[in-house]
Write a structure and sequence with these properties.
Number of domains: 2
Bound molecules: uridine-5'-diphosphate-glucuronic acid
Structural class: alpha/beta
CATH superfamily of the largest domain: NAD(P)-binding Rossmann-like Domain
Distance between the termini: 53 Å
Number of strands: 15
Largest sheet: 9 strands, mixed
Strand content: 5-15%
CATH architecture of the largest domain: 3-Layer(aba) Sandwich
């Protein structure tokens, strides 16, 4: 599929030919070595692009240069080491690296402000540094924003900073694109290998042509839809995408609350049935503890703030956010009803990461559950295959930590499943029966067969499966 639209300026034909020729031997800088920057650098380098990763954090640069990834992602270190050995990838704290390359991808973070809007200071600082370097650069340079920014940011903030600090003209001396990413943590390398689409918001046709040509080369042999559009459209596509996913999750969680009021309703069957409608699709209809991570919660809040700023009705996303904030606490209610009181009860939590296959605990529903259990004076014990040490830094001595499932659930009064790791899915009723006093399981991710567990004498509850009364 091709969508070609945009405020296409008229680039100098010769300039385009020269730039494209040089770019056949692509050298790029990726600025900001967080989750997006690291995976992208490693991926591009393995595709034969010469990549220099830049970050102001010296330790991060040192570790990455030694082949150690600060983030956990399947196979990331294997690809990192290969790219380093092939001399396709290097890391530095020195922005001058921009001078050696023809494209700079901005992948710095855009964290939330307390009011939900995003803080774009890192984007501004990075843009200023690139602008200052462009002053010295003789040939054309393309700047590509990958960071998630609200509509208008590339046009109203990034472009003026680049022009002011370089003394050069956009469209003539440098180009600008907005190229949002749609990577899922835990699956980022696969998402990069075969993206569902590439969105290119372009300042002018020249910028879009260069980025499209770059991606066509990186993905040669694959049919990836490329959507070319305006800068602001590309910025909003990213927010619309994440807000829609969040809405699906809060919607199914809202329906699960109805199921929990009735005796014979099962949310999993409902999700399965409505998911078969091709207009709905089965994905992102898993009821549970709600969405966490660094993206969905942040992007929903940023879009609410943007709607409010523009005097537009934000009530839909406001409700999505509110349902999500209260969803993890449903397991506390269930737990309390099962045990009468939580005080001095041993509650084991299996799963701390916001989803499986990552060690990321940002906005993880587990953190809310732990906070509340501590408040209710329960004895909390945790286990996660990857994230225990990260949680230790937050709760320190207030709770206990385990390094195996069996250690965690041993003699527990109640087990809460908070992340659907494969390791937990494999557990059988027997595993719980032999370790727990009187097994009570609250399955926040719907990973077990309730009939099988109940038949074995386990008190089994999950979100959206009948009344809380046990
Ligand atoms: C999300 C989007 O899925 C990516 O497309 C996007 O690129 C990324 O944000 C980003 O903006 O960078 P991610 O945060 O890695 O990716 O996680 P998801 O796989 O979307 O899961 C988010 C949360 O929703 C998790 O806590 C997960 O457990 C929860 N979830 C997901 C549900 O509760 N139910 C579902 O049916 C699906």
């Amino acid at each position: 599929m091709w969508v070609n639209q945009g405020p296409i300026g008229r680039p100098l034909a010769t300039l385009l030919t020269v730039s494209v020729k040089k770019m056949n031997n692509y050298s790029v800088t990726v600025i900001g070595l967080g989750y997006v920057g690291i995976t992208m650098s490693v991926f591009l380098a393995n595709k034969g692009v010469n990549v220099i990763g830049i970050d102001i954090d010296y330790d991060k640069v040192k570790h990455l240069s030694a082949g150690i990834s600060p983030i956990y992602e399947k196979n990331i270190e294997k690809y990192l080491v290969k790219a380093l050995n092939d001399k396709k990838l290097s890391f530095t704290t020195d922005y001058n690296a921009v001078l050696k390359t023809n494209i700079s991808f901005i992948t710095v973070g855009t964290p939330s402000n307390p009011d939900g809007s995003i803080n774009i200071n890192y984007v501004k600082n990075t843009t200023k540094s690139i602008g200052e370097l462009l002053k010295e650069k003789k040939d054309y340079h393309l700047i590509v924003t990958r960071s998630t920014v609200i509509p208008g940011t590339n046009h109203n903030v990034i472009k003026p900073i680049l022009e002011k600090n370089s003394g050069k003209r956009i469209g003539k001396d440098f180009g600008l694109c907005m190229n949002p990413e749609f990577l899922k943590e835990g699956n980022a390398m696969k998402d990069l290998e075969k993206p569902s689409r590439i969105v290119i918001g372009e300042f002018d046709k020249n910028s879009g042509d260069l980025l499209e040509k770059f991606y066509r080369q990186v993905y040669r042999g694959l049919k990836i839809p490329i959507i070319r559009t305006y800068l602001s459209t590309a910025e909003l596509i990213k927010y619309a995408n994440n807000a829609f996913l969040a809405t699906k999750i809060s919607f199914i969680n809202m329906i699960s609350r109805i199921c929990d009021k009735l005796t014979d309703c099962d949310i999993n069957t409902i999700a399965y049935a409505i998911g078969l409608d091709p207009r709905i699709s089965p994905l992102f209809l898993r009821a549970g503890l709600g969405y966490g991570g660094s993206c969905l919660p942040k992007d929903v809040k940023a879009l609410i703030s943007f709607l409010n700023m523009n005097n537009l009705d934000s009530s839909l996303l406001y409700a999505v956010n509110r349902i999500n904030n209260t969803q993890p606490l449903n397991v506390i209610k269930i737990c309390e009803q099962a045990l009468q009181t939580l005080k001095n009860k041993k509650i084991s939590i299996l799963g701390l990461a916001f989803k499986p296959d990552t060690d990321d605990i940002r906005n993880s529903p587990s953190l809310k559950i732990i906070d509340e259990l501590i408040h209710r004076e329960a004895h909390v014990t945790l286990y996660d295959p990857k994230a225990v040490d990260k949680v230790k830094k937050i709760f320190a001595e207030k709770i206990s930590y385990s390094y195996s499932v069996h250690q965690c659930i041993n003699q527990a009064d109640c087990v809460i499943i908070a992340t659907e790791w494969d390791e937990f899915k494999k557990l059988t009723p027997q595993d719980f029966l032999k370790s727990m006093k009187k097994p009570i399981i609250i399955d926040g991710r719907g990973i077990y067969n309730h009939k099988e567990f109940r038949e074995k004498g386990i008190v089994y509850k999950r979100i959206g499966l009948g009344p809380y009364k046990i």
